[in-house]
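Review this today:
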Amino acid sequence: MKRPSYLAAIRQLPCVSCGRDPAGEAAHLRLGELGRKDWTAKGRKPDDKWTTPLCGLCHRDGPNAQHKMAEAVFWNRLRLDPIKLCEDLFSARDHEARLEVIRRARVGWQ
């Protein structure tokens, strides 16, 4: 499902990987887990609720970007559960609550 206002809100959050604020991009999560989220094949974007804030370097362009390695490897390097992160961000009621989700996630791996 397309959620343009939600994607705009995600883009305004700090990058969950490096902290750049604002991240500027909403990275769609294609990973899945039985009972939690369906896998999404290439060429088909998942529902916009399955997005995380990443900057361009961490999302696409940097040497350790999400798109330059297996998605599971990217998230394992950050020691984050991306499905839970997406669920928590989507459940958060406003910008401040989403900022707190990002703060908690980043503290967990730094």
Remarks:
- The chain has a mean pLDDT of 87.
- Strands lie at 25-28, 51-54.
